[in-house]
Design brief:
This protein is an alpha+beta fold. It folds into 4 domains: about 210 residues, Porin chaperone SurA, peptide-binding domain (Triger factor/SurA peptide-binding fold, Orthogonal Bundle), CATH 1.10.4030.10; about 140 residues, no CATH class; about 120 residues; about 100 residues, Chitinase A, domain 3. The chain has 26 helices and 15 strands. The longest helix is centred in the middle third of the chain and has 33 residues.
Length: about 650
């Protein structure tokens, strides 16, 4: 709600105590990185930083870079290592590890610990380590660690460090209290109403301008080379296979169909069901007395009623002998299915007590001939055999690859066709041909762009239990800007657009100057050197532009940062032109009669202050420690991550 006052929380310290989800982040590649101490990537690698003698090694940082890049690719599939590092990710990860290590060192110096039992509890609570029933699964635990290239010790150290840091920061962040008077003032500010106008100076209204020269186009391209850079592309080699490849082996034989039919005689053969009623009594004498009453002429329902059983208590309904045996016992079911229709059985014992059963009705179901269910049985057998044969094929291919066979050799042995994609991005786009599509490869693109150039071929799933592919990297095309000759027309059009946008900015700036000098917004637009669209009048409360669940037009948000009577320009999206935003009137709000808003404001501010306290505490802790960064080693790691030619 208070984004208007301050942008959203992003504290690296606050992450320590925001809940157990942090630990799940460690093993799923999501989050801010490890919280542990020491060289978790293995002693002997180059030290990038030290905190009170505790080292942060290049292997540890590399692991964090890989995991965070994988997470970022879930939102940006085309993101490559070069672009990720250009965003400052490496420096931020080192800073996070230094800050979190400082907190953990400080906590241990104060006597804080994380017992094995505490760490075990946190591990058991991580969803990635649980089965479908929500219970800890050691197999899932080991698989997740292997998938993320984490050792159990690494994870335990990270969790222990986080628990110690959280013990420090929870009291700090939970201490702020905001007075009601302060909350009232800010809540009232949220109810403030502002009125003004928004106009636009479109770039399209500025005319084409002079034709750019070749030299000007080349200079513009050089200055803006980054915007034309094509992300890393990869040429993938793959060989698909699926159920069609094992169709012959999976075809059911007549003998298999007949055997299945015989094995399921209870399902397909003639069978009998009976509608039954029963009374279950605790002792044999009582059961014999009830059976005697029925034999003497009392109806079963009346005798049961006299014994305290209602019709609902005695009704069993229609059952097969096997079903009734499951409900009672084999002896009781045998007695019930040996009796004639309308008869009552002698008392028979089960673990539940003594049963007296009445046969209300008998229904006989004729056998289903094999001819009627042959197709159904064939489909079931075929599906099972296909799954087994496909699984065997996958295993055979994986074993061959593991033993050193090439992709070509495996494909030839199994009769598969190897195909090759053109250079595509992580989202499957081919820049040279926008119409190119490889939908069958979408499920494996993330894996393909995580593979090392020299990594052995993998067998990956395209459609679970149905289609698979042998996948390999044929070639990697590093991220680079294409030659100007290939994108010259686009660059020229962009330069023309940029110049039109610049002229539009000059016009918008002159309009703002007139408005700020006292001219009305409508008149300032009317006096512009070119015809412009009419301005629009807008009115809104500050609360309306602070809703996190609704995107707010930037011009409306700007109106709440302007002094009364003033105007300012704002660039329109996609280079369309420039907005001129003018604030005409301000009506103060009063939240005195909105206690809910006051309380919400207080809660929000307490969260913001808690974050700030945690930040300041973390900085103070780090500032009081001996922290050394090895910038040369950090730069060397950056070069290794980028690879040759991109440093």
């Amino acid at each position: 709600m208070l984004k208007i006052f301050r942008s959203g929380a992003s504290s690296k310290f606050l992450l320590v105590f925001l809940g157990l989800a942090l630990f799940a982040m460690v093993v799923t590649g999501f989050g801010t990185g490890g919280m542990g101490l020491g060289d978790l990537g293995g002693m002997g690698d180059e030290t990038l930083a030290e905190v009170e003698g505790e080292t942060i090694g290049s292997a540890q940082v590399r692991d964090q870079v890989d995991r965070q890049l994988a997470n970022a690719r879930q939102q940006q599939p085309d993101l490559d290592m070069a672009a990720f590092l250009r965003s400052g990710a490496l420096g931020e990860i080192v800073t996070q590890l230094v800050s979190n290590t400082a907190l953990t060192v400080f906590g241990r110096e104060q006597g804080l610990t994380a017992s094995k039992r505490m760490v075990d509890g946190e591990i058991a609570s991580i969803p990635a380590f649980q089965n479908l029933a929500g219970q800890f699964d050691d197999g899932a635990f080991r698989a997740a660690l292997s998938r993320e290239n984490l050792s159990e010790k690494q994870l335990r150290d990270e969790i222990a460090g986080t628990l110690i840091s959280r013990q420090l920061l929870l009291p700090v962040a939970g201490s702020p209290k905001v007075p009601e008077a302060m909350a009232l003032q800010y809540a009232s500010l949220l109810l403030e109403r502002r009125s003004g106008s928004v106009g636009i100076v479109p770039a399209a209204a500025m005319g084409a301008g002079t034709e750019p020269t070749d030299a000007e186009v080349a200079a513009f391209y050089k200055e803006n080379e980054g915007r034309y850079t094509i992300p890393e592309r990869r040429v993938l080699r793959y060989a698909e296979f699926g159920a069609d490849k094992v169709a012959a082996a999976a075809a059911p034989t007549d003998a298999e169909i007949a055997a299945f039919y015989q094995a399921n005689a209870a399902r397909y053969g003639a069978r009998e069901t009976r509608s039954l009623s029963q009374v279950v009594l605790p002792d044999q004498a009582a059961a014999r007395a009830l059976a005697a009453k029925v034999a003497a002429g009392t109806s079963f329902a009346a005798a049961a009623s006299e014994a305290g059983f209602s019709a609902a208590d005695t009704a069993v309904g229609e059952r097969s002998q096997a079903q009734f045996a499951q409900l009672t016992s084999e002896a009781v079911a045998n007695a019930a299915f040996a009796a004639a229709e309308g008869a009552v059985t002698a008392p028979t014992q089960s673990p539940l007590g003594w049963h007296v059963v009445r046969v209300d009705d008998i229904a006989t179901i004729a056998a289903t001939p094999l001819s009627a269910v042959r197709d159904e049985i064939a489909a079931q057998i075929g599906a099972r055999k296909s799954e087994e044969a496909l699984g065997a094929l996958v295993t055979r291919i994986e074993d061959a690859l593991a033993e050193g066979a090439t992709m070509q050799e495996v494909a030839q042995a199994e009769g598969l066709t190897i195909r090759e994609t053109p250079p595509i991005t992580g989202s499957g786009i081919q820049f040279d041909d926008p119409n190119f599509k490889a939908p069958e490869l979408q499920p494996v693109l993330e894996t393909a762009f995580d593979m090392a150039p020299d990594e052995d071929p993998l067998v990956e799933t395209l459609v679970p239990n149905q289609r698979f592919a042998i996948l390999a990297i044929a070639r990697i095309v590093p991220a680079a800007a294409p030659p100007l000759a290939e994108v010259g027309d686009r660059v020229k059009a962009d330069l023309v657009q940029r110049r039109a946008l610049d002229r539009a900015k000059a016009v918008a700036t002159s309009i703002v100057a007139k408005i700020n000098a006292g001219t009305s917004a409508a008149q300032a637009f009317a006096e512009a050197e070119r015809p412009l669209p009419a301005i629009e009048t807008v009115t809104a409360r500050r609360l309306d532009v602070a809703r996190p669940d609704q995107p707010i037009p930037p011009p409306l948000a700007m109106m709440f940062s302007l002094p009364k009577g003033k105007a300012r320009i704002l660039q329109a999206p996609n280079g369309q032109g420039w907005f001129v935003v003018h604030l005409q009137e301000t009506v103060p709000g009063n939240a005195a009669e909105s206690p809910g808003l006051i309380e919400a404001t207080r809660t929000q501010f307490e969260g913001i202050l808690g974050e700030e306290y945690a930040n300041q505490f973390g900085r103070a802790v780090e500032g009081g420690m001996d922290v050394e960064r090895n910038q040369d080693a950090i730069n060397a790691l950056r070069g290794q991550l980028l690879g040759p030619g991109l440093q």
